Amino acid sequence: MDKYMQLAIDEAKKGLAAGGIPIGSVIIRDGDVLGQGHNQRVQKGDPMAHAEIDCLQNAGRIGTYKGTVLYSTLMPCYLCAGAVVQFGIKKVIVGENTTFDGAQAFMESHGVEVINLQDQTCIDMMTQFIKDKPQLWNEDIGE
Amino acid sequence: MDKYMQLAIDEAKKGLAAGGIPIGSVIIRDGDVLGQGHNQRVQKGDPMAHAEIDCLQNAGRIGTYKGTVLYSTLMPCYLCAGAVVQFGIKKVIVGENTTFDGAQAFMESHGVEVINLQDQTCIDMMTQFIKDKPQLWNEDIGE
Known about the structure:
Number of strands of chain A: 5
Strand order of the largest sheet of chain A: 2-1-3-4-5
Distance between the termini of chain A: 32 Å
Helix content of chain A: 40-55%
Oligomer: homodimer
Number of helices of chain A: 7
Strand content of chain A: 15-25%
């Protein structure tokens, strides 16, 4: 397992344990972790606190995003993909897109390299969550 | 002047007075203001706290976004346009796009109606800010 994806999975599990949505994210540059986070919709009552947004908030004002790689346990939605495109993050590594399509084509159309690990741990985690709490999941993706 | 755009301008001015970036946003439904906010990159040290994101955070977990209209003093960037598309906000009214192109075509390609008031107060506010603090502005849009 990619160690940064493992970190993102750990973040997702932290969120699940706190009653939240199990999606985690990490941003790195040259092997250094600049920030990490997880979905906090439930915990903070904040509909914008998707995992990738929480991660980028925690990274703080890093200036340029050149050379950064964003990890997420799940294919980013349009909100998070929008952040990727706007801030010039050029590489995104995702755990899976089996449980949620996300905005891969949108990112790629803006020159972002998207690598999908199709990781079984990530798939199982979201599959179970969507089965357990479908309403919460649908709220998170605006459905 | 549209009273909701005036509210967004007031938010922008609040941000400027606090040393921040003068962009404000309001979300309404059936004439009711559900949330309002302004860019807080400087104030909160949060690069994700664009005006529209701050506004949507302040609105909280409203469930469906059906029937909502999002106001912003400036054409939304990809981050904020991504939120609009993901959460199904179908109408966006902006102050201007003279100082920043934003992601109008992206929103429209997802069925969002975008109305640009090309308001002189909004144009003057951003023009002056970009002149005064170009580095801060470039940081905010990831350049």
